[in-house]
């Protein structure tokens, strides 16, 4: 990051702290994502180098960079799908690679459109978001011995006297309760897909499929929504509606981390931009990113055409 970019980002960060009444004496929550000096390579050549960044609860952050810049790799490091060669990656204040509270994360993959080959309905896709909640650890009033017995010999233990406890049966057999199904219906309604609930994924447009996968994330009651170039192959009208939905979800408090190739969409919608090309070229408010030279340094001169920025 250049001195000019660093100063701009630091000034904006200071202004944000002032506006929100935060200072050194005010306790703050741990970041949702916290990377410190992260370096990773699939071979001896690093794909990302010495990357440090933190994403706080409720932020809307876009990660941009040219093809091959390490954006998707950085996302996998954030989510603990890859372990850094150097540095640390933390997720909800835990080691990212050891984090196992998957229900807190909603992930929409770059190639979610591949799901168009799956012979399942939209409702069935969204129901998947509830399965992470069907665990014995969430059943109240069970001691460790009982939980251990249920895990080791579930059928025998249920038959021995716990078969009348619905939550236990649901956890063992993967059955959704009425409250689970209500959450599924609410997620479908939130993304505007209730009318398509019984339609097969194979019959949806690209934008509708992405909405279905966001509904799955909402059904899991995720705190963090991570999207890897979700609008690839989606028509322009659907893209606008898609970003309106993301903005509404962020307004409700969901943290959004978006990897996006469309710089114009990033400028229009994201509050903060991380510009990456193996290393971080810029990290700060969107307005400061547009005015910085990070575009030219990371993307080349064609970046201004992509964003529609003249100055």
TrEMBL record:
**UniProt GO molecular function:** ATP binding; ATP hydrolysis activity
The organism's taxonomy opens as: Archaea, Methanobacteriati, Methanobacteriota, Stenosarchaea group, Halobacteria
Please give the residue ranges the record annotates as the region Disordered: 1-30
Q: Please name one Pfam family that this protein belongs to.
A: ABC_tran
**Family from the record:** Belongs to the ABC transporter superfamily.
Q: Where is the ABC transporter domain?
A: 33-303
Taxonomic superkingdom: Archaea
The protein depicted here goes by the name: ABC transporter related
Task: Fetch the SMART domains from UniProt.
Answer: AAA
């Amino acid at each position: 990051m250049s001195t000019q970019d660093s100063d701009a980002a630091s000034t904006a960060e200071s202004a944000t702290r002032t506006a929100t009444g935060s200072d050194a004496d005010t306790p703050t929550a741990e970041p949702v994502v916290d990377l410190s000096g992260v370096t990773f390579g699939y071979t001896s050549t690093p794909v990302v180098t010495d990357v440090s960044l933190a994403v706080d609860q409720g932020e809307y952050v876009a990660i941009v960079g040219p093809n091959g810049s390490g954006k998707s790799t950085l996302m996998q490091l954030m989510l603990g799908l890859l372990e850094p060669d150097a540095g640390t990656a933390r997720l909800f204040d835990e080691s990212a690679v050891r984090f196992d509270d998957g229900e807190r994360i909603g992930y929409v993959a770059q190639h979610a459109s591949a799901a168009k080959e799956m012979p399942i309905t939209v409702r069935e896709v969204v129901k998947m978001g509830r399965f992470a909640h069907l665990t014995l650890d969430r059943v109240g009033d069970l001691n460790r011995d009982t939980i251990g017995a249920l895990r080791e010999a579930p059928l025998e233990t249920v038959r021995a006297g716990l078969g009348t406890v619905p939550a236990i049966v649901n956890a063992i057999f993967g059955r959704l309760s009425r409250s689970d199904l209500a959450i599924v219906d609410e997620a479908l309604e939130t993304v505007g897909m209730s009318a398509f609930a019984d339609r097969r994924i194979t019959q949806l447009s690209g934008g509708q499929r992405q909405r279905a996968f966001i509904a799955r994330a909402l059904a899991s009651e995720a705190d963090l929504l991570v999207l890897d170039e979700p609008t690839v192959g989606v028509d322009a009208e659907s893209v606008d509606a898609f970003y309106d939905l993301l903005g509404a979800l962020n307004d409700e408090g969901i943290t959004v981390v978006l990897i996006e190739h469309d710089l114009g969409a990033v400028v229009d919608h994201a509050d903060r931009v991380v510009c990456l090309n193996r290393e971080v070229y810029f990290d700060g408010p969107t307005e400061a990113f547009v005015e910085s030279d990070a575009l030219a340094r990371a993307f080349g001169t064609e970046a201004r055409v992509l964003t529609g920025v003249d100055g």
